[in-house]
Amino acid sequence: MLPRIVVAGNGQLGQMLSQAGAPMQIEVLPVDPNGDVELGLRPDDVITVEIEHWSDSVSGLQLKQHPNFRNAAALYAVIDRQRQKALLDRLQVPTSPWVSLEGDNLQTQLESIGDKVIVKRRRGGYDGRGQWRWQKGDQPETEWAGECIAEAMIPFSHEVSLVGARNAAGEKVFYPLTRNWHENGILRASVANLPVPAEQQRNAEAWLGRVMDDEGYIGVMAMECFVVDGELLVNELAPRVHNSGHWTQEGSAISQFQLHLRALADLPLITPPVEGASVMYNLLGRDWKPEWLQVPGVHVHWYGKEIRPGRKVGHVNICRADVASLIDSLQALQALVDDDDKVVFDWSIAQLQG
Ligand code: ATP
Ligand code: MG
Q: Which PANTHER family does the record match to this protein (predicted)?
């Protein structure tokens, strides 16, 4: 009997985990961890998360205190950016220079990092929220003390991420590095299966593997990196399925969602096969159009949320057998999307053309 997988959080990630479980009849139950209801959890349920923060509500405590709540150690380490940075330092995983902002003299602490700094709230930030740019000469905010870390602004050439999984036996598998474009801290698009220097892939797998082993992690974890002069520098970890892995839904025979379920349910973990090339285009505060489905390789994923400016309400995967066909599809789709999003396709095509 496979366990039921209960997901703390009932947004799109839980929804997509449910979809991935359906063919194998793995029951996936996303729940609101902030609710005040009795969840009726069973002793053999396995609990996973799609979000990292929730309150000690009635439901929240039932989830956290369940004997099969997975990855408490990793969540504890990652949930707070200071602890996360300290973990990466301890495991000798390279990250941007950083300092924890404390007490008075913020100016001196910030300057110790560099002339251009990003201040990040230790807890609760996502999609670029809870971040501030600071430059030498700017007045620091006193509220940053005790609440934020500061990081050197990294002059990266591009951003990539690694998505991988580990099971209870310590076996680990990974997808190829994905190239990502963030704008104002929010992911606009990802390109998958570009040629990557073997050393980058090897280093990234070694680092994420080291983190997962250290935390006794079970499931999918993502690691975001900057590329600087061809070398990787880790930006941050996400102890869950990740937006930059959404292309795997049709770009691999084993999606990151299925991979996560395999690890949690102790089903065989094999390296996900990836052929062809894929682009993931995030729908930020905009609807999709039926005519998009005329374009070969287009797969629409709609989250069923109310459309609000800038909100992630869906994504489109464009997956083709080779780069030339993918570029054809991207050009065809580009002609059909809103003007503001045409730039996403220019960027994606430029990455594919190298
Ligand atoms: P997520 O939603 O992925 O959790 P986030 O809001 O937690 O994102 P980060 O990933 O730390 O925050 O930052 C968002 C983006 O801001 C990065 O992908 C990158 O584009 C930019 N950024 C963050 N830190 C730095 C840095 N030290 N130097 C340069 N750019 C940065
Ligand atoms: Mg990020």
A: PHOSPHORIBOSYLAMINOIMIDAZOLE CARBOXYLASE, PURINE BIOSYNTHESIS PROTEIN 6/7, PUR6/7
CB 272 within 8 A of CB 252: yes
CB 137 within 8 A of CB 118: no
Q: Cβ–Cβ contacts within 10 Å for residue 140, how many?
A: 20
Q: How many CA atoms lie within 13 A of 44 on its CB side?
A: 6
- Contact by Cβ (8 Å): 68, 45: yes
* CATH, domain range 5-69: 3.40.50.20
| Residues 140-159, mean pLDDT to the nearest whole number | 96
Residue 162 has pLDDT above 80, yes or no: yes
Token pair in block for residue 157: 């050439």
Handedness of CA 222, 51, 79, 307 (dihedral sign): positive
Ranges of each domain in the chain:
5-69, 97-152, 158-353
CATH number of 97-152: 3.30.1490.20
CATH architecture of 158-353: 2-Layer Sandwich (3.30)
Q: Is 235 in the pocket of ligand 1 (CB under 6 A)?
A: yes
Residues 178-184: what's their mean pLDDT?
96
Atom of ligand 1 nearest to the CA of 151: 27
Q: Ligand 1 within 6 A of 182 CB?
A: yes
pLDDT value of residue 37: 95
157 class by beta-carbon count within 10 Å (0-12 exposed, 13-18 middle, 19+ buried): exposed
- C-alpha–C-alpha distance, residues 142 and 153, integer Å: 20
Angstrom distance (rounded) from CA 343 to CA 222: 26
Ligand 1 pocket residue status of 153, Cβ below 6 Å: yes
Which pLDDT score is estimated for 52?
Answer: 87
Crossing angle of the two packed helices 342-353 and 323-334, in degrees rounded to 10? 160
| Averaged pLDDT, 309-319 | 97
The residue whose CA has the least distance to atom 7 of ligand 1 is 126
343 lines ligand 1 (CB under 6 A): no
DSSP state of 268: -
Q: How far is the CA of 55 from the centre of ligand 1 (A)?
A: 25
Residue range 286-312: mean pLDDT, rounded:
98
